């Protein structure tokens, strides 16, 4: 899973990137409002960590811009501004959580996982989809209680589909989710990985929508 971090503090930014890496989360770090994307691409970014006080602008303005365009990516505000009015403005403005500095990085990572679970419509660290169970944090999956022997790429693919179980995920979105920091995976490789994954979780578990992408059955 990929995190967009917008934070101007050098020490905190480095510490957060290191903590995210340990937890198996990739990240991109930006330090100015001007460098932030006009729209956050949900095909690439799973969650935004947004500082409110940036050297060239306000995080509130970024939050308002993204939510005005109905951008669905979860956003966690991280800030030293702990006044009630600031928290209310952030949450009412569309933030999914509000974390006051200083904070323990372990708590922040836990909050990230919580908003990602809500985004995927799951209630615990163990995701349940029909007879499949997926544990994103420990990179484990099982079918009808039997552990699945998945390659790292197969697990990434399963997670990319599970985030939107029951809906079609376009091939282009899958390609970006598999390589958020590099060149997108080519479609021919995706087809091979889908074929391999089907053999392990059941041919009917992944449906093909010709010319569009794939859908993981939700039940």
TrEMBL record:
A Gene Ontology term for the protein's cellular component: cytosol
UniProt KW Transcription regulation keyword: yes
Modified residues (4-aspartylphosphate): 51
InterPro entries xrefs: CheY-like_superfamily, OmpR/PhoB-type_DNA-bd, Sig_transdc_resp-reg_receiver, WalR-like, WH-like_DNA-bd_sf
Keywords: DNA-binding, Phosphoprotein, Transcription, Transcription regulation, Two-component regulatory system
Transmembrane segments: none
DNA-binding region: 124-218
Domain of life: Bacteria
Short name of one Pfam family: Response_reg
GO biological process: regulation of DNA-templated transcription
Classification via SMART domains: REC (SM00448), Trans_reg_C (SM00862)
Response regulatory domain residues: 2-116
PANTHER family linked to this entry: REGULATOR OF RPOS, TWO-COMPONENT RESPONSE REGULATOR ORR33
Name of the protein: Response regulator transcription factor
Organism: Ramlibacter cellulosilyticus
């Amino acid at each position: 899973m990929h995190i967009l971090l917008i934070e101007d503090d050098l020490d905190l930014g480095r510490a957060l990137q290191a903590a995210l890496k340990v937890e198996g989360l990739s990240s991109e770090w930006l330090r100015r409002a001007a460098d932030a994307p006009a729209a956050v691409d949900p095909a690439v970014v799973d969650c935004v960590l947004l500082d409110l006080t940036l050297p060239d602008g306000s995080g509130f303005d970024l939050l308002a811009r993204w939510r005005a365009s109905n951008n669905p990516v979860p956003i966690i505000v991280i800030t030293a501004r702990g006044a009630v009015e600031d928290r209310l403005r952030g949450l009412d403005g569309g933030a999914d959580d509000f974390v006051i500095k200083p904070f323990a990085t372990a708590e922040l990572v836990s909050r990230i996982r919580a908003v990602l679970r809500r985004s995927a419509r799951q209630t615990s660290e163990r995701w349940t989809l029909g007879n499949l169970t997926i544990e994103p944090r420990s990179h484990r999956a099982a079918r009808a209680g039997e552990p699945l022997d998945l390659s790292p790429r197969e697990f990434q693919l399963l997670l990319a589909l599970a985030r939107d179980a029951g809906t079609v995920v376009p091939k282009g979105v899958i390609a970006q989710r598999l390589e958020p920091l590099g060149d997108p995976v080519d479609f021919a490789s995706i087809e091979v990985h889908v074929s391999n994954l089907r053999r392990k979780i059941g041919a009917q578990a992944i449906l093909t929508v010709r010319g569009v992408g794939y859908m993981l059955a939700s039940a």
